[in-house]
Amino acid sequence: MCGLIGFTYQSGGSTQDAPIIANAMTRAITHRGPDSEGIWWEQNEPLVLGHRRLSILDLSPAGNQPMQSICGRYVIAFNGEIYNHLKLRSQLEENHRGFTWRGHSDTETLLVCFAAWGVERALQATVGMFAIALWDKQEQVLTLARDRMGEKPLYWGWCDDVLLFGSELKALKAHPAFNAEIDRNALTLLLRHCYVPAPYSIYQGIQKLMPGCFVQIPLQGDVARSKDAQPEAYWQLNHAAEQGLANPFTGSPEAAVDLVESQLSESIGEQMLSDVPLGAFLSGGVDSSTIVALMQAQSERPVRTFTIGFDQGGYNEATHAKAVAEHLGTDHTELYVRSEDAQAVIPKLPNMYCEPFSDSSQIPTFLVSQMAKQHVTVALSGDGGDELFGGYNRYMAARKVWGPVQRLPVFARRAAAGLLRSVSPATWDKLFDWARPVLPTRLQLSIPGEKARKLADVLALSDGHAFYRQLTSHWTDPAKVVIGATEPRSLLTTPSAWPETDCLEHAMMAMDAKTYMADDILTKVDRAAMATSLETRVPMLDHRLVELSWRMPLDFKIRDGQGKWLLREVLYKHVPREMIERPKMGFGIPLDSWLRGPLREWAEALLDESRLRSEGFFHPEPIRAMWAEHLSGKQNWQYHLWSVLMFQAWLEVN
């Protein structure tokens, strides 16, 4: 993996400062590319490009960036991997016989594709993950582009008349023209979702390029014309979903399983291409186990797999991962971490995540990445299976809960909500623990108290979209907590952003892929892994598999109250069913008890009432009340409080 930066010259500024500024920006993201650094600038050009390289393909200097095309017209800075680049090379060679390559990097392949086919056609031809800055010297146009599903980050925006862009905000902040202020409206979205969703960032005027989009910015003439440039899509998840549902797979369930296995195997095979050591994360769950099983089926040597475990019950899947690894014959490494080890990561988070981010599984994700990096440079991940094949409990809730709820009279909903709220989440947890030995598997829920509270909240909602938004919200009215803020529109509150689907479950899966997966899951993995200079790859998000998944009927994804039927059937060809069938655990930490125990003093300092008042971002009263309830054990407000704490910790160092 790599990191890129770029900026335009400030009006009247000296070009002699360009390499000094570019070096400062690239140094800010050295962790993304520790192997080499490159700067491109020319005296008569309005643009500077910079790059940090983590060498994966073509370890020679021929793969260094920024890279210029042989014709001299284009310059590229590229972060990512193009998995089908060898096939693209073959196509290019057929059309341009006698062409000579300088090296065998995918960067060079991509650059020649742009020169031969143009921007949009080249982007549509790729299979991969990427953030790209392409400078056309002839037309004086900068193109910024991001992969279809949002695996790689790309921030961009104007500070006065200077265009800044890069892989992380910390690179933009290293430029002397950076003057953006914290966006209080975006802060409300952090409290609601635990992340700042694209296209917003925590800073006013700085945005994330949306997945599947590119923007072409002319850099000659009036700067106002440059600022008018708007992103456009070269691929849309909504279109893929609607096309898939309009042209459904009509074969047998067994044929569907074979088709999914074939495409996933092909995707994994392409993503195993590497000139450096490669492995995979293995939790022992359906998704990661499927990835590892199909990797091992294509490998002549044992695949390197990595798991971390916790001694605290309810948060440890290492034993399950070890059993899967032994069955598949992988070269398995596991590390059991103490609570103290995980807590020691917390001070690193504000720098690791260049804007506030509060999915607490960021901590174990960093720890497993840190361990894997000691052995490999690339790790495959099982992310994406839940969104594509219906794995989250909320999809089951759409059918089991929302269907009956919307048919109930209003007074009955209110009565049921009151009953659920009359029992504290802690008591619900105890009741479920007591009853667990006699409960069927589908009722052995994780954090049942939290789920009971959320159910109470949704009982009086008006429609399925509101139901989904409620399920994915933490602070339900964050504008009342953030001083001087109005919650802005997001994809979830924009009706036109929702695809036309055949059922609520499919609509939720699409919106999860566009929001939660892109802005939470992929952000979490990218920053945590990149902090250790580890490249991660996500085979489930190959757009060919994404498009195939949308051709599959819902019954092939969710059956008998259980999600990911197709993936499970693929996996059971390689791993015994009884090794996998157990309640979904997730990749979390006991944050609720930590906040009442070893993290209490740290949290208390960040949530101090006088501090909150002096900083002026939050109304202290609701936060202090929530903190008191959490400490007493009456309610588990870990997610709400963690969002505030992560902003406070980030603010302290920014």
Low-confidence stretches: none
Report the C-alpha radius of gyration, rounded. 25 Å
Placed side by side, the strands forming the largest sheet appear as 2-3-1-9-8-10
> What is the makeup of the main sheet?
6 strands, antiparallel
User: What's the β-strand tally?
Assistant: 17
Q: Give helix % range.
A: 40-55%
Task: Tell me the β content.
Answer: 5-15%
Instruction: Find the structural class using helix and strand composition.
Output: alpha+beta
Number of helices: 28
Question: What is the CA-CA span between the terminal residues?
Answer: 25 Å
* Coarse shape: globular
* Average pLDDT, all residues: 92
Name some characteristics of this structure.
alpha+beta, 6-stranded antiparallel β-sheet, 14% strand, 44% helix, 654 residues, globular
Layout of strands and helices, then pairs:
Blueprint lengths: L2 E6 L9 H10 L8 E5 L6 E7 L13 E2 L5 E9 L2 H11 L10 H12 L1 H7 L2 E9 L4 E6 L8 E5 L2 E5 L2 H5 L10 H10 L12 E3 L4 E6 L4 H5 L4 E2 L3 H10 L6 H19 L6 E4 L4 H13 L5 E7 L7 H11 L2 E7 L1 H5 L5 H4 L9 H12 L4 E3 L4 H5 L3 H15 L2 H12 L3 H11 L12 H11 L5 H8 L32 H27 L4 E3 L5 H7 L15 H7 L19 H6 L3 H7 L2 H7 L4 H13 L5 H16 L1
Helix pairs in contact: 2-3, 3-4, 6-28, 8-22, 9-10, 9-22, 9-23, 10-11, 10-23, 14-21, 16-21, 17-19, 18-19, 19-20, 27-28
